[in-house]
Amino acid sequence: MDDAAKNSAAQPMTATVELAPQHASGGSDATATKAERKQARARQDEKFKVFCGTSNPALAQEVCDFLGLPMGQTHLTQFSDGEIYCQILENVRGADVFIVQPTCDPVAHNLMQLLLMIDALKRASARRITVVIPYFGYARQDRKDKPRVPISSKLVADLLTTAGADRALVVDLHAPQIQGFFNIPVDHLFASPVLVDYFRKMELPDLTVVSPDAGGVERARFFAKKMNSALAIVDKRRTDINVTEVMNVIGDVRDRTCVILDDIIDTAGTLVKTVQALLDAGARQVYACATHAVLSGPAIDRISNSSLTQLVVTNTIPLTAAGRNEPKIKVLSIAGLIARAIQSIHEETSVSKLFS
């Protein structure tokens, strides 16, 4: 099949090839497209390519814009029974390839899509394949906390390695020790620089950073140090999956502005109970921030009806229409941080310098 036929076959699919004009700023579509092409030619490198699946193409396009690279062309579709079809539409032989694909809802679909893309690139003789997973699904199942349950995050790590991934780039793992489940190099990024910069500019008075549970104390302590603020902890007891009972607040929050720091906001049950516990303890107002806005089930309604002043999240996971329309939710882009990490990996320079 010639190149024209391949490009024609790709048209029914993907936003991945068509996103660039939407992110151009100002001017006509023709002018914007021309500017994007110039940017891509200025950084043209046939051995450095970025691809994405369908879970978060907008973030992947932002990453490509930062790097000055055109988005790699992929054809992803489904058979009528739901089976995924994948084809890489350009030459990747000997290339350093990055796949941007958070394994968010629908988790199983996006994970399988990622595995198929890895396999396709491996069989197309890519020199190195790095999976860029802004949100690592199944990270919450990282140990046997009950009899006869799987360690799902280890299984997913094994699947990625078996499929052919050479290294992984992840953002704010639920448990940092999950890096040890991989038998390939893992670069672990933190969204804290993006969140810290936002709250510093707000100049909130009498600030206290709050960890919503004991497991997040180290994360909250680091954040509090960067913000030069006090630290508090909410002791909670989990009674079932996605169900928690807030117990008490450890630390003085009376007449203070509180910022709850977490890695994942899922159903928001813990969040709204933590907000109420802090207000009951005398807090003046409560903000919250998290890297991954899963926001499943009744999350948006709970946030809307709560006394929370604002929830700040990053775009590792695309928000639903309800989430985008909720005035209490503010989304920050993490594309620049991911792009700089990708460039460091490609150029074989230090990734840790991004956080020094």
Describe the structure.
It contains twelve helices and 14 strands. The chain is α/β, with parallel strands linked by helices. The chain has a seven-stranded mixed β-sheet with strand order 10-9-8-11-12-13-14, sandwiched between helices. Helix 4 (57-67) crosses helix 12.
Nutshell version of this structure?
This protein is α/β, with parallel strands linked by helices. 35% of the residues lie in helices and 24% in strands.
Give the helices and strands as they follow along the chain.
HHHEHEEEHEHEEHEHEEEHEHEHEH
Q: Residue-averaged pLDDT, rounded? A: 87
Radius of gyration: 21 Å
What's the shape?
globular
Structure classification:
alpha/beta
| Spatial strand sequence of the major β-sheet | 10-9-8-11-12-13-14
**CA-CA gap between termini:** 49 Å
| Secondary structure: helix percent | 25-40%
Multimer state? single chain
The fraction of residues assigned to DSSP E strands is 15-25%
Query: Unreliable runs, pLDDT <50, ≥5 residues?
Result: 1-42
Number of helices: 12
DSSP strand count? 14
Largest sheet: 7 strands, mixed
List keywords for this structure.
alpha/beta; 35% helix; 7-stranded mixed β-sheet; 12 helices
Question: Topology of this protein?
Answer:
Layout: H1 3-10, H2 20-23, H3 29-42, E1 48-52, H4 57-67, E2 74-78, E3 84-88, E4 96-100, H5 107-123, E5 128-133, H6 152-163, E6 167-171, E7 186-189, H7 192-202, E8 207-211, H8 217-227, E9 230-240, E10 243-250, E11 257-265, H9 269-280, E12 285-293, H10 299-305, E13 310-314, H11 321-325, E14 329-332, H12 335-347
Parallel strand pairs: 1-4, 4-5, 5-6, 6-7, 8-9, 8-11, 11-12, 12-13, 13-14
Antiparallel strand pairs: 2-3, 9-10
